[in-house]
Amino acid sequence: MSRDVRNPLLFECAWEVANKVGGIYTVIKTKVPVTVSEYGDRYCLIGPLSYKTAPMEVEAEEPTDEHLAATLDNMRAQGVKALYGRWLIEGAPHVLLFDTGSMYSKLDEWKGDLWNLAGIPSPPNDHETNETIVFGYLVAWFLGDYVARQLTTAVVAHFHEWQAGLAIPLCRKRHIDVTTVFTTHATLLGRYLCAGSVDFYNNLQYFDVDHEAGKRGIYHRYCIERSATHCADVFTTVSHITAYEAEHLLKRKPDGVVPNGLNVVKFQAMHEFQNRHATSKAKIDEFVRGHFYGHYDFDLDNTLYMFTAGRYEYRNKGVDMFIEALARLNYRLQKAQSTVTVVAFIIMPAATHSYTIEALKGQAVTKQLRDTVTEIQNRIGARLFESAARFHGDSSSSSGALPNADKLLSDEDLVLLKRRIFALKRNSLPPITTHNMADDAGDPILNQIRRVRLFNDASDRTTRNSCAAHISACSPATTSRGGYTPAECTVMGIPSITTNLSGFGCFMADLIERPQDEGCYIVDRRAQSVEDAVEQLADYMHTFSTKSRRQRINQRNRVERLSPLLDWKNLGIEYSKSRQLALRRAYPDAFQANGDEEEGLEEDGYFGSGERQGWMAPSVPASPRFRGSATPGDMGTLTEEMQSLETSDYRGYNQWPGASEEEDSYPFPLVMKVRSRAGSVMSGASTPGGGTFRSLSERDLEKADAALSQRGRRCKRTKDGVREEQREVVERRGPTDICRHAKNYLGSRTFFAMLLGRHRRRISAFQFNG
């Protein structure tokens, strides 16, 4: 019996379903609304049961699908413990969680079966691998039993990462009629190689992957990941850098890229996120007062906050670069005698014992001072009100006169205030960490801070605060394949620094002509040395720290308007493509019967098929121009809609910066890159003062005149002295209304400078030949 491929069932399996560990939890959780809108009740998530988080995240209920209910009853009868219900997040999807501990009695049996089926070894003392094996066999058991009962509808199973992917080779070996998709967010071996201080990406094709995995004691995990990769109907990654990595380490070229997105909720007005920014900064100011005040004073209005956050992976997350760049930034600010103070946060989970006494004491005495000031403020207000109420206009009367300002603060209040101020003073330096580290002497972050001597001295312009548990983000990661920290900052209008080795950095570099102009700074970690990369990072940080408040506000506006690029409403289509491609590969006859082959929906190049629709950011006054599309997984061609854009469509057309205007104080163009039909990259529109086109020098203008003069020798002059050939060139390249408006200036280089500066795309074929 053929299955219905038009309305398939979708089971999405991941280790972090209702179980927050890392970034995959964010991927799954934020993607749920768009997936539920596509599949409805045909969508169910599968994950391991965590008794710590499940009671708070899942509402238990009985399944309405009779086949699913029968399958679970059968498994429970054999000792399997499972929880079925609704995940209490936006979209409220169905979720099925298996208790791996309930079937540990079969672990040895399943390990032997895994060796016999796939030749995958499994050491006895690797708890994570044991959990993976039990979970994988439970998922394969469930899928096999379910599709044996449900025979009418196609079933798609989408697996994330190797911990959930073991069920894929099991389904293939058992010939279970289920379509599989495997998505890797970062290869397992790649994480270890990046952490090992090797020149990873430039030597990727030369690694002996089996030897490297065995040397690091992860060969069995690598085998699970590689078997899932090769047995899946469709294999995808979350970024192009991961695709390049997977092709060499896992020996299969990915079928497409499914970039990470966010469930973006646009602010109702432009000032709304600025107000939220101010509110959040006020909370951080409160913490900084307690942590640093009493040691020395600095102006919080002239203080910048930078942070890096993520799992504790010292090298992979670029913490080594971040600290080194902070030391160089500190030196530059000291040398320039800058009054700016930079407070840097390193937010990573680590083994700790408790809060540091100094950190708690600082917050306590600061709160005590605030409470005392509030109490004195209330008493002064009461005295002032009483005097004002009794005042009758006769200043000679002591009973009805306005109080003297010197008498508003009583002696008792003054003594109490002095006691609180003196209690706040401390002689030691501010603590580096908020917690007592379990291994202070061996902690790599603390050791590097000691090496570069960033001890929060009064002369330092950069101070550190490591939180074991916001405002510019800095994530110079080596192996952040998807990367959510800079993406979340972008949605909130916070500038960020990333690298071209991260998925987010590659994503933005592929879409935007000059990402740094939009508040997304990308450090080159592929084509230059580590020293040069650190210097570039320090340059970006120094550039940001020297901006005025108005420039930073304008930059936040430009960053926030990039958020639609990261919306699942735009990026979710790539997941739909991967599932559709898997169905076509599993059931080709069903699609041929419906005549889809005649519609040009062939499998080859499926992720790259179709023309793109132009995306326009809803934020005012943005008018973005594509480099490719809103999704890097589909490198489409230049669409007809984009070819028909007129010059007046370009933002900034009537906006030239005045000489007295501050940098970045005028609306800035979002310049996006466009791919021609031949695959070449063409720059988008730009406006003078910002964008991709530099200002024309006298030498450029001389070349333009020389080129035009060479052409003009063959042309006769009209009575107004305008060359017909030049008129023909301009009318062919630029819009006719502009040409008519400038008909008296066609022979002047001033007009051509304006035309080149504003409408570069219209005359992209024009070449200087002088």
Automatic annotation (TrEMBL):
Q: Which GO terms describe its biological process?
A: glycogen biosynthetic process
Sorted alphabetically, the keyword list is: Glycogen biosynthesis, Glycosyltransferase, Transferase
Biased-composition ranges, Basic and acidic residues, are 718-729
In this entry, which stretches build a coiled coil?
Answer: none
- Per the record, a Pfam family? Glycogen_syn
Region of interest (Disordered), ranges: 705-729
UniProt lists the family membership as follows: Belongs to the glycosyltransferase 3 family.
Task: Give the protein's recorded name.
Answer: Glycogen [starch] synthase
Q: Which organism is it from?
A: Mycena venus
